[in-house]
Amino acid sequence: IPVDTFDLVIFGGTGDLARRKILPGLYRRFVAGQMPEDARIIGAARSDLDDAGFRDMVGDAIAEFMPGQSKTDKTVKQFLSRLHYTAIDARGEAGWSNLAKLVRKDVVSAFYFSVGPGLFGDLASRLQKHGIAQENARIVVEKPFGRDLASAKELNGALAASFEEHQIYRIDHYLGKETVQNLMAVRFANVLFEPLWNAQYIDHVQITVAETVGVGGRGGYYDKSGAMRDMVQNHLMQLLCLTAMEPPARFEPDAVRDEKLKVIRALDPVEADDIVRGQYVADENGPSYVEDAENQDSLTESYIAMKVKLSNWRWNGTPFYLRTGKRLKARMSEIVVHFKETPHSIFDEDAGSHANVLSIRLQPDEGIDLRVTIKEPGPGGMRLVDVPLDMTFADALGPEAEDIPDAYERLIMDVIRGNQTLFMRGDEVEAAWAWTDPIIAAWKARGDRPKPYEPGTTGPEDALMMMHREHRRWREIK
Ligand code: BG6
Fold first, then answer.
1. How far away, in angstroms, is 426 Cα from ligand 1 center?
2. Strand 367-375 to 355-363 pairing
3. Nearest CA to ligand 1 atom 15
4. Is 468 tagged catalytic?
5. Distance 213 CA to ligand 1 centre (A)
6. Alpha helices by DSSP H, 139-285
7. PANTHER family under this entry (predicted)?
């Protein structure tokens, strides 16, 4: 479905995120026919480029990040002709009057701040001062949205001085992933799951975001963040919220975000025993974390596993286990709901006992799989066996599923449509930091040292022990 015509300004238009995600994403939407004829994309950054120079750079980025594409292709050229560029000084006045001339007043305008948070306030205020942002303009900001509650409040304040909350789109790209939205469809468009979606029937939930990459190349940023700030406070927290929230009255921005906020506010503080932090060591495939971070004394975690509890009626007694790490065995993100066993088994003990498991796989191989227990076929008497009710999207939906849009493409189109449902509200981000801050402060106070782990494994031994202690097991990372 085409969207209304627009001018999209990308501050930091020559930067890494723009080249890797935003511009290739827009190109895919263009190819899909979703970009109106006269929609324009305007790069704005410090570099002294002209339209031709910017088009050339974006052509190279498309060729680099989208296999099979070349900047001499007809479609790529057509896309590039929609691009414009203006050099701009975010902290000074240079370039702003030029931008004011470029941005049309009678179409949707969106401003993507693909820059460090230190520039958010400057960009927001100059957009207003130069009369560039009309009433309905939208701004898009990226993580990290602060590094603690105080800095997040400051950023929210700096944006609020120039824009209304309904104009501010805080991106968490995990919310743009296909399966994350499918989690909501599964929960709220079926009658089967919701009656069981509580502590009475669910034993525990596991949320895993495992990566094989290390932090090489972004060590400077990462070493000041660690897995807690880089992944848990935002991506894993959002997955937890969507899994744990009450049904919103409507699938609308504030209805959904109100419910997510309630989940964050119901989180208990996490005890030291319920957290395992890890740091990868070197192996034949790559350097250690401290070498990647260029900080031999670093106490930053590249892995974290934690048990999280919610104090509310729905979840009292059902823990959520979160884990994420770099240089692990496989790239795998999933949310897995482990149901309880039946209250009483009518079968002999040697039939075996089983529990239902619903896994929602974000990547790779997006899909949903429900393990149900049936009788093992054959004459061997009543023996129970788990079989999958499998809905791997590629199998179930055919070619349509092969063209699943990347998270960024979807989210940028939502900005143009003016739909904030999959974006974080200011109070949500602050509540997440309010929960995260004391955990990080406690590590600092104790001088907590992350446990070393071998790359290519599932993380530190202690994380396995943490689960054993609870008579549970982590899902395999594969
Ligand atoms: C980013 C983090 O937000 O998400 C990175 O800063 C991480 O450290 C990335 O690698 C993971 O995203 P995805 O979409 O590849 O799972």
1. 21
2. antiparallel
3. 211
4. no
5. 10
6. 149-160, 178-188, 219-223, 226-227, 237-244, 253-265
7. GLUCOSE-6-PHOSPHATE 1-DEHYDROGENASE, GLUCOSE-6-PHOSPHATE 1-DEHYDROGENASE G6PD
- 10 Å CB burial of residue 418 (0-12, 13-18, 19+) is middle
Atom of ligand 1 nearest to the CA of 235: 3
Map residue 303 onto helix, strand or coil: strand
For a pocket test of ligand 1, which of 212, 230, 303 has the largest count of ligand atoms closer than 8 A to its C-beta? 230
Residue 412 Cα to ligand 1 middle (Å): 17
Please pick, among 235, 344, 354, 468, the residue that the annotation labels catalytic: 235
- Coil vs helix vs strand at 204: strand
pLDDT tens, position by position, for the chain (478 residues)?
779 999 999 999 999 999 999 999 999 999 999 999 999 999 999 999 999 999 999 999 999 998 888 888 999 999 999 999 999 999 999 999 999 999 999 999 999 999 999 999 999 999 999 999 988 899 999 988 999 999 999 999 999 999 999 999 999 999 999 888 889 999 999 999 999 999 999 999 999 999 999 998 889 999 999 999 999 999 999 999 999 999 999 999 999 999 999 999 999 999 999 999 999 999 999 999 999 999 999 999 999 999 999 999 999 999 999 999 999 999 999 999 999 999 988 988 888 778 999 999 998 888 899 999 988 888 888 888 888 887 776 677 666 666 677 889 999 999 999 999 999 999 999 999 999 999 999 999 999 999 999 999 999 999 999 999 999 999 999 9
Q: Do the interacting molecules here have an ipTM over 0.85?
A: yes
What are the tokens at 349? 């003990």
Binding-site residue set for substrate:
173, 177, 211, 230, 326
What is the torsion angle, in degrees rounded to the nearest 10, for the CA atoms of residue 33, residue 39, residue 45 and residue 48?
100
Mutating to test ligand 1, I would choose from 16, 211, 223 the residue with most ligand atoms within 8 A of its C-beta, which is 211
